């Protein structure tokens, strides 16, 4: 019997290959159901094993069609990159020869990491965006294990790599790229969307060198957004949650202010600074120190920056988000007319010749495109083999890194600084519940690079307890009992904690990483 589940198909369409009683039936069906329950649209028909003739009570016309393709219909080439819950691979449609950047997401991993909202939102938002400066979504499909998004292929790689390869960009090059980003951001903001993760890694380049903004996994639709967002595709509680990257976070986000267009404008300022200097403006040894610099607005301009570049960056990095050009009452006019952009023909941007791309230096192991196409797809798709480890391409290190990153940003507040020594920085921090026999107490649990592990009463701002550090797991270990619950075990006592953001295993990883450093 063909098992098909309603809401799942609403977003990705395509065929479902889970056969009850078939070879992979048991596991696949259970997994599909589990994932389905997370992806389904509220108020829709409940999914059921027996629902062989599903009715759609609500359907949404996607521009990018939900195809019945299989990954076998594509010749897979090199891996463009790996995100925190996806892998992007060059994929040529065998029938037509058209090349796409195939974003492949492992359903099991997405479910486990609670990323379904992000995945749905990115699919829905990209579907409705239509601008030469935004990466295009062509179609989606799925199989038992993975979701696939066929994106416009940006063969020129990331702007980040151009900066790295060139050391830094000339003002003309930076002006060109910045103008294309401004043009695309103006469009994105006009649609009522805040991107929330503008940085050189998410600015991709076409083969001929034009900018495309990518990675809409952190996008935030504003209340009056032009974009149709299906019921549970974006949860409101994410309004004040930071999702992004430490070095590009604006100060107001560190103070838990709701997201505004000004967030992207700040990140644009950081990106322009990075193009011109080779590094981000708030670089430091740890994220904690980066946040300190951001809060203090500690910017140092290299003396080779022109007066116009310096002035523009200074304005983009205004502490007051509404004073940043582009985010204020006069919209983008003040940004586009800034002297740094003198000579830019805003109406014919895409007709201008882009800067020459610096190519990747060939290493000895590089054998070119032919070899790329031999990339073995056996670990994706549902046909020949099962997925390995279910990480959807995210390595455990990047996974731990990104979660730690979010944990530290979420809880960032300069008030914890008083508990640190001058050269000490926070590696992981969370508001957790300390579970005791009679009462549960909220405490701020802090792990530093010393290493030091202690917890603070968040109201009285006093240290309530310190765990004696040991690199020996017999003397200090973390026992994870559920996604939210963990125990800190020492020979003398065992303390139980609950982390409502489900970071129990991240605490374990963070402590173990320090013990093995
Ligand atoms: N359309 C594309 N064309 C070419 N390369 C791409 C494309 N989209 C993404 N990539 C590459 O694949 C990498 C992974 O992309 P993805 O969108 O999955 O996640 P990310 O933006 O890196 O990370 P995260 O989801 O953790 O923020 C990117 O860093 C980029 O280098």
TrEMBL record:
<dbReference type="InterPro" id="IPR000719">
    <property type="entry name" value="Prot_kinase_dom"/>
</dbReference>
<keyword id="KW-0723">Serine/threonine-protein kinase</keyword>
<dbReference type="GO" id="GO:0016020">
    <property type="term" value="C:membrane"/>
</dbReference>
<dbReference type="InterPro" id="IPR039046">
    <property type="entry name" value="PDPK1"/>
</dbReference>
<dbReference type="InterPro" id="IPR050236">
    <property type="entry name" value="Ser_Thr_kinase_AGC"/>
</dbReference>
<feature type="compositionally biased region" description="Low complexity">
    <location>
        <begin position="381"/>
        <end position="400"/>
    </location>
</feature>
<dbReference type="GO" id="GO:0004674">
    <property type="term" value="F:protein serine/threonine kinase activity"/>
</dbReference>
<keyword id="KW-0808">Transferase</keyword>
<feature type="region of interest" description="Disordered">
    <location>
        <begin position="351"/>
        <end position="400"/>
    </location>
</feature>
<dbReference type="Pfam" id="PF14593">
    <property type="entry name" value="PH_3"/>
</dbReference>
<dbReference type="InterPro" id="IPR008271">
    <property type="entry name" value="Ser/Thr_kinase_AS"/>
</dbReference>
<dbReference type="GO" id="GO:0035556">
    <property type="term" value="P:intracellular signal transduction"/>
</dbReference>
<dbReference type="InterPro" id="IPR011009">
    <property type="entry name" value="Kinase-like_dom_sf"/>
</dbReference>
<dbReference type="Pfam" id="PF00069">
    <property type="entry name" value="Pkinase"/>
</dbReference>
<protein>
    <recommendedName>
        <fullName>non-specific serine/threonine protein kinase</fullName>
        <ecNumber>2.7.11.1</ecNumber>
    </recommendedName>
</protein>
<dbReference type="GO" id="GO:0005524">
    <property type="term" value="F:ATP binding"/>
</dbReference>
<keyword id="KW-0963">Cytoplasm</keyword>
<keyword id="KW-0597">Phosphoprotein</keyword>
<keyword id="KW-0067">ATP-binding</keyword>
<dbReference type="GO" id="GO:0005737">
    <property type="term" value="C:cytoplasm"/>
</dbReference>
<feature type="domain" description="Protein kinase">
    <location>
        <begin position="74"/>
        <end position="341"/>
    </location>
</feature>
<comment type="similarity">
    <text>Belongs to the protein kinase superfamily. AGC Ser/Thr protein kinase family. PDPK1 subfamily.</text>
</comment>
<dbReference type="InterPro" id="IPR011993">
    <property type="entry name" value="PH-like_dom_sf"/>
</dbReference>
<dbReference type="InterPro" id="IPR033931">
    <property type="entry name" value="PDK1-typ_PH"/>
</dbReference>
<keyword id="KW-0547">Nucleotide-binding</keyword>
<keyword id="KW-0418">Kinase</keyword>
<keyword id="KW-0472">Membrane</keyword>
């Amino acid at each position: 019997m063909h098992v098909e589940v309603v809401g799942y198909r609403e977003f990705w369409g395509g065929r479902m290959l889970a056969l009850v009683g078939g070879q992979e039936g048991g596991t696949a069906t259970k997994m599909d159901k589990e994932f389905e329950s997370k992806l389904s649209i509220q108020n829709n028909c409940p999914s059921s094993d027996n629902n062989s003739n599903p009715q759609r009570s609500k359907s949404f016309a996607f521009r990018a069609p939900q195809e019945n393709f299989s990954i076998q219909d594509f010749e897979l080439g090199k891996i463009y990159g790996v995100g925190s819950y996806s892998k992007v691979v060059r994929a040529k449609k065998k029938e037509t020869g058209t090349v796409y950047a195939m974003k492949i997401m492992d359903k099991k991993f997405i479910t486990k990491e609670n990323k379904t909202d992000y995945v749905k939102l990115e699919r829905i938002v990209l579907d409705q965006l239509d601008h030469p400066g935004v990466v295009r979504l062509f179609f989606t499909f799925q199989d038992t294990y993975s979701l696939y998004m066929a994106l416009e292929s940006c063969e020129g790689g990331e702007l980040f790599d151009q900066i790295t390869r060139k050391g830094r960009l000339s003002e003309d090059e930076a002006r060109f790229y910045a103008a294309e980003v401004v043009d695309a951001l103006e469009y994105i903001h006009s649609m009522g969307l805040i991107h929330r993760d503008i940085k050189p890694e998410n600015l991709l380049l076409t083969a001929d060198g034009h900018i495309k903004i990518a990675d809409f996994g952190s996008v935030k639709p504003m209340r009056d957004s032009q974009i149709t967002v299906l019921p549970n595709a974006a949860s409101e509680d994410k309004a004040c949650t930071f999702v992004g990257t430490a070095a590009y976070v604006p100060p107001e986000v560190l103070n838990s202010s709701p997201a505004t267009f000004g967030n992207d404008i700040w990140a644009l300022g950081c990106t322009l600074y990075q193009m011109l200097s080779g590094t981000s403006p708030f670089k430091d040894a740890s994220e904690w120190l980066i946040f300190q610099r951001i809060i203090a607005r500690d910017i140092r301009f290299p003396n080779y920056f022109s007066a116009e570049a310096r002035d523009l960056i200074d304005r983009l990095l205004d502490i007051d988000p509404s004073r940043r050009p582009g985010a204020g009452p006069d919209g983008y006019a003040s940004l586009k007319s800034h002297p740094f952009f003198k000579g830019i023909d805003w109406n014919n941007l895409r007709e201008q010749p882009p800067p020459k791309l610096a190519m990747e230096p060939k290493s000895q192991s590089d054998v070119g495109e032919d070899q790329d196409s031999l990339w073995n797809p056996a670990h994706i798709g549902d046909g020949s083999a099962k997925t390995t480890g279910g990480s959807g391409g995210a390595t455990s290190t990047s996974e731990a890194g990104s979660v730690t990153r979010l944990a530290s940003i979420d809880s960032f507040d300069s008030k914890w600084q008083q508990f640190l020594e001058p050269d000490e920085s926070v590696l992981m921090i969370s508001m957790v519940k300390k579970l005791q026999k009679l009462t549960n107490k909220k405490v701020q649990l802090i792990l530093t690079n010393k290493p030091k592990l202690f917890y603070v009463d968040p109201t009285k701002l006093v240290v309530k307890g310190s765990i004696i550090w040991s690199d020996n797991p017999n003397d200090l270990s973390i026992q994870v009992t559920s996604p939210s619950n963990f125990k800190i075990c020492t020979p003398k006592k065992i303390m139980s904690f609950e982390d409502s953001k489900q970071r129990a295993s991240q605490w374990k990883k963070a402590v173990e990483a320090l013990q093995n450093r």
